[in-house]
Design goal:
It is a single chain. By secondary structure, this protein is of the alpha+beta class. The protein has one domain.
Length: 168
């Protein structure tokens, strides 16, 4: 059994209980960015890379786009809820340890539709990070089925807040 100080020390992820997302920006090659979410911490690694962190329960949208000499090779958006220690989670590239994936969409036309759905939430006066998680699941399901998602309204948001207030 290894009892060295390094073996007993919790990892940085466990010590902070935050969800860490590595962002990269190599213009027109690799572009990873956060569309919305409340960043709890930020660490700049170099001019092109940084790590942003989210508190447990925080919801954020993580966009990944990459290309090569022949065009786009990946377009993806994930809307994720940061998990607390001990909570189950799904793994995601560039997200440590992972999170509760509310929405996962590939291909630029559908990613663009998600970005428009985020704009609709903002236009209703609600921060997308505060929108009901079920709304993001609904958007995922509708776009996956080739259908338009229902808009998120202030009335739906108020119903979500009331429902959340009743939960134990």
């Amino acid at each position: 059994m290894n009892t060295s100080a390094a073996a007993r020390r919790p990892s940085n992820h466990a010590a902070t209980a935050l969800t860490h997302v590595e962002l990269t920006w190599l213009e027109k090659r690799i572009e990873h960015w956060i569309r919305f979410g409340r960043i709890a911490e930020e660490k700049i690694l170099d001019r092109r890379r940084r790590i942003v962190s989210f508190a447990p329960g925080g919801v954020f949208a993580f966009v990944r786009w990459a290309s090569n000499d022949f065009g786009t090779i990946i377009s993806r958006i994930d809307i994720v809820r940061a998990v607390a220690l001990g909570e189950p989670y799904a793994t995601l590239p560039f997200v440590r340890p992972g999170g509760d994936i509310l929405l996962r969409i590939n291909s630029w036309p559908k990613v663009d539709q998600v970005l428009q759905a985020i704009d609709v939430v903002e236009a209703s006066g609600v921060d997308p990070a505060d929108a009901a998680p079920d709304h993001w699941r609904h958007v995922h399901n509708r776009l996956t089925a080739g259908e338009q998602p229902r808009p998120y309204t202030l009335a739906r948001h108020k119903a979500w807040l009331m429902r959340r207030g009743l939960a134990p």
